[in-house]
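RETRY 2/3 - previous attempt timed out on the joint model. Re-submitting the same 333-residue input unchanged.
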Amino acid sequence: MDETVKLSSSQAPNKKNNWFENYKRWFLGVGVEWTASGADLLLIEEMTVARNRIQHGSRGDSHGLIKTQDEDYRSRFPKALFQSDLEARMFRNFGPKLRSIELTKERLNRAIEEIMLFANFIEEHLPVEMKYWRG
Amino acid sequence: MDFTEDLLADRIGGSWFRLGARTDGATPDARRMKDEMLRESLLLPPGAFATAFSKLDSVGNVLHNLGKPDGSLRQYGRQEDYLYEPFHRFEIPFTDVVGEPLVFLHEQVSNIGLFINPDLWMYLGLEEKGKEFMQRLRILHDKLRFVSWFFGLTTAPFVGIKRKIEAGDHPYKSSAMPSDSSDPPFAVEWLDADQVIR
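RETRY 2/3 succeeded.
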């Protein structure tokens, strides 16, 4: 996304303080309205948070195989795609602070579909002068 | 099938037209159908559109050779002439209309892509700008395809273990001996396999 931003002469969006919203507003400024993409933007945002938790968050088991959602993750994405169905059923308003980030083949494929829908939409709707050629 | 939208396409912004487009890496949907697009363009002499259009028939039949050099042999009695048709000269069959391909499919040994007529490139003073963006989109697509393939391949053995335990298949056949544990047989192995998959 940063490389795409570089194709424009507009000032790059702020990466701090709700960067997802900042990028969304920046793209709107060049005529690309993410909400019109049909992609699940909450899921796209969740993927970035899940990725950060997987890279930097604490682990949920002794083998280090299970990565966890923290409270901030859960409050932002109460219907998260990458949650454990079992934990969601067991713990509604109580339970451990850290919950598992769970990935299945079906969820992975759903995430991939949304990413490609989102990326193709941006490619399709970028202003021409940003995309291909200029005189 | 209705090609009106493609044949009578509007500008895509300012003075820009989409002269060429090609779907790359379309994935089949649930019905195993692919949504693919190919758009090429041809510059015609003024006033020749109606004549050319009336001979298009099925568009692909007439235009599939667009931008490809060709040659033909013509006989006049005992004389034979070899005619060479360069890529930038495209004769609409059964007419005297000759057009110049602007953007068209170009097949090479290693890849197929759209080719822009260098005359058009030079005349408009075009400059390549976003090719890297298109490449990134392709790379993204390839990486995601790889991730899906890799995930399926690496988790398959553990999915198999869970399935065998649930079915009581070899080597997870439960012993006939009574057990002190209240857990189902091979609960630890099942949980380990489940943990890996997640």
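Chain A touches chain B at residues 3-4, 7, 61, 63, 65-66, 84, 100, 102-105, 108-109, 112, 115-116, 119-120, 123, 126-135 (CB under 8 Å). Closing ticket.
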